[in-house]
Amino acid sequence: MPRVAITGTRGYPAYYGGLETAVRKIAPFLAEHGWDVTVHSRPGFSPEHGDLRVHNKPVWALESRSLSNLSSGLASTLSLLRDPPDVALVMSTASGFWLPLLKLRGIPSVVNTDGIEWERDKWGALAKRVLHAGAWMTGKFGTHLVFDAEAIKDYWGTHFKRSGTFIPYGGDDVVDLTLPEGIEPGTFVLMVARLVPENTVYEFFDAVPQLAQRAPIVLVGSTGWGGDLDERAANLAATHPNVTWLGHVADETLLDSLYANCVVYFHGHSVGGTNPSLVQAMAAGAPTVARDTVYSREVLGPDAPLVTPSEITTTIEALLDDPERRALLSAANIERAHERYDWTDVCQRYEDVLRLVLR
After folding, report:
1. What is the dihedral of CA 188, 194, 200, 201, to 10 degrees?
2. Which of 64, 85, 93, 153 could cysteine-pair with 135, CB 3.0–4.6 Å?
3. Is-contact 86 2, C-beta < 8 A?
4. Alpha-carbon distance 283 to 256, whole Å?
5. Where do the DSSP E strands lie in 28-180?
6. Which residues, including other chains, have CB under 8 Å from residue 149's CB and lie 6 or more apart?
7. Percentages (nearest 5) of helix, strand, coil residues in the chain
8. Residue 130 and residue 140: Cα distance in Å, rounded?
9. DSSP reduced 3-state for 41
10. With bands split at pLDDT 50, 70 and 90, how would you rate the model's confidence at 15?
11. What is the pLDDT confidence band of residue 66, given thresholds at 50, 70 and 90?
């Protein structure tokens, strides 16, 4: 039985971001297909409702916004050196600094490069340089790289001279459509995002007062650390009776219901590759207005309504007035998600890469 250790996320099963979503799918799939699977988890993580065949291994980390990934990556690497698996699945380029140690120990690595983290506005200049250096080290010492978007694969080929395998994220069919009390199905505009500037949050919040005159607005997400955008979301909900802020939502069933029941979903992510929130919104049939980026065009296809920040209000208002267009977008999103973003296919492709590296 081959042994794989998965590092670079908060743990299994965690409910925070795209990488955690991927690990929740990949880890039990590998266990089902004959792998001995261990997932490294950060301090204070309490696993619940996971597959009992997946082992959680706590590792030390400094819990701060800038140091948690680096420190947990080092702790995971030291653990791997003491008890080497057959292969390491590393879900973060922040661990690139420690990949030479795995190489010296003879532990092959498959690294999910995730998005272009050093271009995110939430980081200062020093943090961006450190993150870019981690990516460079990943390109230098990672055995096999995985890219979640073709555009990310092209970027790495151009900037780091590395190739690898394109494997996106997946989406699930929605079964439970139960909504919280006070939120009516088929009436509300939805935004789901971590509240950081590169997700076009400021611009969408600017549009909320006018949009709220036309339809209820439901905001999902938080910064994770507190700050100006959390305060602004709270203020919008407090001053506009048509605005609801749910904060961070870990309940996937609730998120799926929100996607499936919204009248329009706004996706403002501007940095990164295939975004799991966008893929899941598509699988749920959400009529989607997205920030115009190379990644949104790749995932949604050529006919989706893609916007600049200045076009958010007018585009959403036009879609609110056009139920026929919304129905067409919903059907197209479901079909595209089924064809291109199926979790079983995604997990199988990860296993194929792991077995390739073992050989």
Report:
1. 60
2. 93
3. yes
4. 9
5. 36-41, 54-58, 87-90, 109-112, 144-147, 165-166
6. 166, 168, 272, 273, 274, 295, 298, 299
7. 45, 15, 40
8. 15
9. strand
10. confident
11. low
